[in-house]
Design goal:
Elements: H1 2-7, H2 13-24, H3 38-47, E1 54-60, E2 66-72, E3 78-85, E4 95-98, E5 102-104, H4 113-116, E6 119-122, H5 125-141, E7 149-152, H6 162-173, E8 185-189, H7 193-202, E9 207-211, H8 217-223, H9 232-246, E10 250-256, H10 264-274, E11 279-285, H11 299-310, E12 316-318, H12 332-341
Parallel strand pairs: 4-7, 7-8, 8-9, 9-10, 10-11, 11-12
Antiparallel strand pairs: 1-2, 2-3, 3-4, 5-6
Helix pairs in contact: 5-6, 7-9, 10-11
Length: 342
Amino acid sequence: MENLVRALGMPAFRAKQIFHWVQGKGVALIRDMTNIPKNTWDILEQHTFICRPRVVAQSQSRMGDTIKFLLAYEDGVTVETVLMTYDREYSRDRNTVCVSTQAGCGMGCVFCATGISGMERNLTAGEIMAQVWAAQNYCAQNRFSKVTNIVFMGMGEPLANLPAVLKSIHLLNDPEGLNVGMRRMTVSTCGLVPQMYRLADCQLPITLAVSLHGADNALRSRLMPVNRQYPVEEVMKAADYYAEKTGRRVTFEYALFQGVNDGVQEAEQLGRLLQGRLAHVNIIPSNPVPESGMRRPDPVQVERFMGKLASFGVTAVVREEKGVDIDAACGQLRRRVEKQEK
């Protein structure tokens, strides 16, 4: 921004003012920057714009604690963003936004609604930030506390768009912006090994979440084609490197699908794989995606799976479910709207 304002003939201090308005206050219009001269508004409007996507659709869970937005950018590309509020349970101190990093996804995981539509393009850091501000504005309008946590777990593979994700992390963390602590941010990956090493070398105190869903190569390759390029052994080495470089425990996401990966044998394989590692497991009873044919396991099977993991000394929790009734899994709202339009 300093380079920009200098190039436009403005004093360098304008950069901090503009940054604060855009990243700290979330203004939608340049003319809302009240401490900037009007002639400066005109110049900025000629050369810049503030990314504020249009809300195409919005749904809210029955409990009112999960809100899903379908946002459209200027080129017509749409992405999903989910706001999960915990105000009632945590005394108004936690609101989490799940942001998308790509429009669509090219990873081809068989259980994911996002991948069905294929990959359109990467999002810019500005487009990622605009999702956070859509959620932040909703919080303000409904008298919730501000956004406190960010998870890069929406549509797309975050590490396939690593430069924009890293820029977003620094923007979110900036004291002149939303000032979200890095320890309150989580970046998910399906296991892009080279990018996992690059992220580890940044030594940021963020949480890395690895989507595993299968502990042996045959099962994981069946669910996640990326495993054919980066098998389980390589993913685990990269995860260990991340834990070593950052001192942060790696989270492993494991979605349970009935009759596919929810058996005692699969639990034993996962237990042996993670035993002794600096790791934590999120067990996720899968959201149903009709196109995939995958089904949710029953609660008894989930408990049996958890018990077997515990016998290996692996720390695991069943992730709190939010938004099942509004199709909160990645890509489901967008597909529903697309079908209606057709």
